[in-house]
């Protein structure tokens, strides 16, 4: 049995949810397609497809095999074209995870240029508020902001992001502009649910210090965090790159610039111990270049 050919048959059947339609698309007898997939299942020792009179569906094992087979065939196609320089030769699925605010503020506005340059790449962009398990969840790479244990992953540093304290003009008009650290005790701090250490993390004469403040609002994601600040519900501490537009148009104002927190590291992580495909290399290089303007602006107040 030609396993590569059988994989291609399997993917076609799974995509069309039909042996008949797959056979027509591939110009092969239906019996031949069915027989080869049965042989594939026998060699694997699992059932990949549920067969009914109306449709064909993937089993749980079939779903796992489908994803791995799709990636394997894409890598084989890329291997056959690896010495070609034209962008059209780069193809396959690319799974990437990054924080939602990074995606919306820094990546999505420019992503069309990358996708137009490499139309054969099928990008799956995940935006999670947690550090995903890159290997277990099948990601090609992930962008992390902040200090995270790498857990055996390969890592590539991009730079650091400036972190600022900010509030809306409406909030400051109602509650006043804090002039000193002691003033923060009378102000509300909007909290992130995944921030275990509550309060402001401030850098004072090179030393890190955490100031506890009041506040009754806790939110679960960065975009809500920013929005809550813009509508005047409290003070936040966030990477400047994520609120640059709001600062520029006056919806937010930086406060206590002399007491910024330490800059946050920005890191690309990816599975270790295997060569990266060309499409992953290209995306990581593009993303690094795209973010350089944001991460290189770590400057004193």
TrEMBL record:
Gene Ontology biological process terms from the UniProt entry: DNA-templated transcription
SUPFAM superfamilies: Periplasmic binding protein-like II, Winged helix' DNA-binding domain
GO molecular function, one term: sequence-specific DNA binding
InterPro entries from the UniProt entry: LysR-type_TF_proteobact-type, LysR_HTH_N, LysR_subst-bd, WH-like_DNA-bd_sf, WH_DNA-bd_sf
UniProt KW keywords: DNA-binding, Transcription, Transcription regulation
Superkingdom of origin: Bacteria
Residue ranges constituting the HTH lysR-type domain according to the UniProt record: 1-59
PANTHER family, alphabetized: HTH-TYPE TRANSCRIPTIONAL REGULATOR, LYSR FAMILY TRANSCRIPTIONAL REGULATOR
Family to which the UniProt record says this protein belongs: Belongs to the LysR transcriptional regulatory family.
Name of the featured protein: Transcriptional regulator
The species this protein was found in: Pluralibacter gergoviae (Enterobacter gergoviae)
Lineage: Bacteria, Pseudomonadati, Pseudomonadota, Gammaproteobacteria, Enterobacterales
């Amino acid at each position: 049995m030609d396993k590569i050919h059988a994989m291609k048959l399997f993917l076609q059947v799974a995509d069309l949810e039909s042996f008949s339609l797959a056979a027509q698309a591939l110009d092969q007898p239906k019996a031949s397609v069915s027989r080869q997939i049965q042989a594939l299942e026998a060699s694997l020792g699992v059932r990949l497809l549920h067969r009914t009179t109306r449709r064909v569906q993937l089993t749980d094992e079939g779903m796992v095999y489908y994803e791995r087979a799709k990636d394997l065939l894409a890598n084989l196609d890329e291997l056959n074209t690896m010495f070609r320089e034209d962008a059209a030769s780069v193809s396959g699925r690319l799974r990437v995870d990054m924080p939602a605010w990074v995606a919306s503020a820094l990546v999505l506005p420019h992503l069309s240029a990358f996708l137009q340059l490499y139309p054969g790449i099928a990008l799956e962009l995940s935006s999670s508020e947690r550090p995903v398990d890159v290997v277990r969840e099948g990601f090609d790479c992930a962008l992390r902001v902040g200090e995270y244990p790498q857990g055996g992953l390969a890592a590539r540093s991009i730079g650091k992001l400036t972190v600022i304290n900010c509030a809306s003009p409406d909030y400051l008009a109602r509650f006043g502009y804090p002039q000193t650290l002691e003033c923060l005790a009378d102000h509300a701090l909007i909290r992130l649910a995944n921030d275990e250490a509550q309060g402001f993390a401030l850098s004072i004469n090179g030393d890190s210090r955490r100031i506890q403040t009041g506040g009754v609002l806790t939110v679960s994601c960065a975009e809500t965090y920013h929005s809550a600040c813009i509508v005047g519900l409290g003070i936040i501490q966030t990477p400047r790159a994520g609120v640059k537009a709001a600062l520029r148009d006056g919806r937010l104002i930086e406060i206590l610039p002399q007491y910024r927190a330490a800059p946050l590291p920005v890191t690309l992580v990816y599975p270790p111990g295997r060569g990266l495909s060309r499409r992953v290399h290209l995306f990581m290089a593009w993303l690094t270049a795209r973010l350089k303007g944001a991460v290189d602006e770590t400057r004193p107040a």
